[in-house]
Specification:
The protein is of the alpha+beta class. The chain has helices at 6-21, 32-40, 71-83, 96-106; strands at 28-30, 43-45, 55-57, 62-65, 87-89, 92-93. Bound molecules: zinc ion.
Amino acid sequence: MFRDGLPVAERVFRNHALRKYRCRRRNVAFDTKGALRRIRHAVVGDDRVMEGVLGCTDGITIWIMEEAQTHSEIVSTLIHEACHNWCHVRGRPLSCRSEHICMMRVGERAAVCC
Ligand SMILES: [Zn+2]
């Protein structure tokens, strides 16, 4: 997504931000470098701590749970977690709920994250 689908995802996130926060286009920014950095530095999380979720992020680190995941699930989870804190309005990330709405509009199926 960060390579091929970026224009579509940016449009969806930007339009959502413009409507929800009633801001100007120049107030919406994307931290793609940060998202890619979070993917590159993702670590395996402890399933006992985050039971029932596939991934989690604090905006800096992405944790991928050990719970049996296929390659495709791992990739989807990494992209999902990287989309958190990717779009900013006036320097602040969208709400988690807004991010999930945008991810669904881009085509993601229901994700399990914390
Ligand atoms: Zn999420």
